[in-house]
Amino acid sequence: MPIYVADLLHREHGLDRVLATETANNYLAAFRRCPDNPDMALVQWRSQLWNDVLPVTHQHLAGELYGRWLEWRFRYLALPSEVQTMLQTLRLQYLLGVITNGPTAAQWEKIDRLALNKYFDCILVSSDLPWAKPDRNIFYAACHYLGVAPGQCVMIGDKLETDIQGGIEANLGATVWLPLPMEQRLCGDRTIDDVPEHVRPDATVDSVLKLPGLLPPSTSFRVRGTGAITTTAMDERMRQQKTTRNRAAQYNRILPDIPDLYSSYSSSSNDCSQHSNGSTGSSSSSS
Q1: Per-residue pLDDT for 286 more than 50?
Q2: Which residues lie below 8 Å from residue 218, measured CB to CB, with a gap of 6+?
Q3: How many helices and strands, by DSSP H and E, does the chain display?
Q4: So what's the pLDDT on residue 49?
């Protein structure tokens, strides 16, 4: 995305190519450090970030650049049709969840704009809760709302230090690492050579589309209605109740007791072939 903004600044607004690239990269760095500010609306905060990195002669473009950047961002983040089909198919047989680290407003913006609630039974944002990955309690929270034991869950994530380490420390049934392409990695992201043996994933895949071939058969097939991927009104209501959108009504009352509920699962196996009822995935980047 920075390359698109830099090109716009250079072509349409006459900014030197090097300075345009530096400006776009500086915005991305500032955004990753602090993607939202609880004291401001998202549009106000991010327009301010653009204002701060632009040369004085171009600061009047802050609002326009934010709008264009946001358009490109969600075009880039959009789920390809084959991934949508995969999720719809998996959800016929498995319970699916998302655990994502990040500030509330920024993460829910992505969740809403990408309509992820159509594909997942439980969505947890760390800033809504007392914990963040790799704290095992946030994984136990997902298990609780999916209604499955930790040993029946597979954690799929792109960060070894949060997704995989957290899944292992929570004694989930298995962990699967989906490494990000080099150009999408952040400074500090670990590689397989940077982590000790005991926090390495059970499996590694280079494409999310390979996940179905790794998952064990489900022992709890769920009928969702008369069509292949039809959701009944009751299913819809139940799904809505399993997201942190309802945290004021449910989460604050229930979550503090969750670690005790799963203390007996400390010795869960990491054999992916033995566990099949649930699958929790993650989106931990806020870029």
Answers
A1: no
A2: 93, 94, 276, 277
A3: 11, 6
A4: 96
